[in-house]
Amino acid sequence: MPNRLSDATSPYLLQHADNPVEWWPWGEEAFAEARRRDVPVLISVGYAACHWCHVMAHESFEDQATADRMNSLFVNIKVDREERPDVDAVYMEATQAMTGQGGWPMTVFATPDGAPFYCGTYFPREYFQRLLEGVASAWRDKRADLLDQGERVVDALSAPRTLPSAEPPGPDRLDLAVRALVRDYDSADGGFGNEPKFPPSMLLSFLIAQDERTRPHQTAADPARRPPSPVGGASRQDGLPPSTEASDPVSPTPAALMAGGTALAMARGGIYDQLGGGFARYSVDKGWVVPHFEKMLYDNALLLRAYTRMSRRPPGRAAVTASEHAVLRAVAEETADWMVRDLRTAEGGFASALDADSEGEEGTYYVWTPAQLREALGEEDADFAARTFHVTEEGTFERGASVLQLPAPPADRWRYDRVREALLNARSERVPPARDDKVVAAWNGLAVAGLAEAGTLLERPGLVGAARGAAELLLTTHVVDGRLVRTSRDGRAGTSAGVLEDYADVAEGLLALHGVTGEARYAHEAGRLLDAVLEHFADGDGGFFDTADDAERLFSRPQDPTDGATPSGRFAAASALLTYAALTGSERHRTAAEAALSAVSLLVEKAARFAGWGLAASEALLTGPRAVAVVGDPADPATEELVRTALRWAPLGTALSRGDGVDDGGVPLLRDRAPLGGRPTAYVCEGFVCKLPVTTPEELRDQLTSG
Questions:
Q1: How far apart are CA 45 and CA 47, in angstroms?
Q2: In the chain, is it the N or the C terminus that has fewer CB atoms within a 10 Å radius of its CB?
Q3: SS3 category, 650
Q4: Are strands 361-362 and 435-440 parallel, antiparallel or unpaired?
Q5: Contact at 8 Å (CB) between 488 and 10?
Q6: Which pLDDT score is estimated for 220?
Q7: Burial letters for 573-603: b for 16+ Cβ neighbours within 10 Å, e otherwise?
Q8: How much is the pLDDT for 707?
């Protein structure tokens, strides 16, 4: 019997549609079949860009002998974790509880009612075959023990969990979070912790906001006084990179040093695609040299926003030199260009990921040997490229190949640009990694926010247009009867209900897009999504569940307040609620945001690394958040310049709204805001109490930086 995955919208499931394994998609039909046959369920969870998922597929799921065992002994269910994050979350919690670790592919053996009794990750084929026989034997001979194990796991994981009561963090708790991060900071290589090292995307936004709140203000005319480079050099006693004396009024804060050091180290390392732009998922070493080569939309959307924010002000504000500041800006621009070039779908959305593998090998598309450089460039330029990108005879990766890095600025910029373009053209002749072209609502929301801000600040209107295109796909395809669908592919909506992060991140993206375009409907659509969050996801104790109250019932209802690879649903919701409250004056939304941020206070000391989005939102709460209304003729360049000035100089988390000064579009912040003397005008407000309106970028900057 062929398996049942051929009609899936998930590229990961479609990769397994021709397996000899009789896969079922997740659903009640599969569990009913297990009850009918009186056999256990084998649940295999992964995602399309997962290297070890491919390895297990080739070894086991494409092997007829292994498939025969699976088919005769189990009902086999294949799950795309990106399409069903709720299923992934509950079984990953079980896997971690049983084994002390987790990862993908995740392999779960469960009862016909879905209760897990044995969990693991990747299994080599011979071991996996023995495991299949062993589990089936235990099901026949020791079923009571397995049922008891499953019942105990379900009872433990479904028990109510309530966080202690707390208030949103004030300045002292936010400062404590920075001190906690200093302890984990890698002053030699940037980032936090040891290998494998992941981009701290959410933490960067917090560190930028914290620096801006705690550091004396500079204007664009201030000298770019700074310490030695935040990467390398002798460490200080406190674990931070070298700095100037504390008496220097513009000495970078610890937050700025950690953000700048990390951003520059990643930009120079192999985790960043030095030819095509964009970041890989993580580095297998602490120095950012060798990545795990899959490139995810969510990483790049978040890092685009972080690099844009770090480069939006003059170098003296970013703990970097002018040349390093140019690197940050270039990374932002190249990452945005990569997203639009390589991930944008025909329908205007953004695909989920590029695979780590091509031609059956991990990293083949991205790495170079000296011989390959000579073939592409000729002898002289190959020598220059090898020195510039640190390509060695020994190699930094496998089989003598090297991952391209840029440890120092190129000695000859014109030659560098020419060689880089030649290498990119040569690479385009290679077999590219496969693309997972499903559109995930949450990650597209993050992309909309990043592209809207980057397009405005970098003066690249095409990026704003790309953000608008993705937003339109979300609103026309993913919003069905006022509720969100998690995924789509080729313009066809999937069947998985949106989870909390989908509602929150799409709302965040729509609010950012409203701010730079002035289209009121984006703000209204965001409000409708946030109303659904309050109605369907609230836990009654100030927090949120990750699934809706009318979603499919699993053996536990997931609720994780901490950030993972993406912002936690709870903190993403808090951030969007706070922005919406600043635009509308809604006390209901603000109160909900404050309650959700109470969890940050409980995490700052021991888990600050996993609360970055909540910490950033808490910084915004501490500053008001402020709101800026810009009104003026949309065709007048002066209107655009005021919007750009607001994005550049307002504290992170400031709500921005734009209108023509004639029709407020039903956005309360724009009500009764008129241009002064017919000139584009900006109003800086907090709690709908506004300062005197201003009409020049200089006046607006002064208001935004005067405290």
A1: 7
A2: N
A3: coil
A4: unpaired
A5: no
A6: 40
A7: bbbbbbbbbbbbebeebbebbbbbbbbbbbb
A8: 65
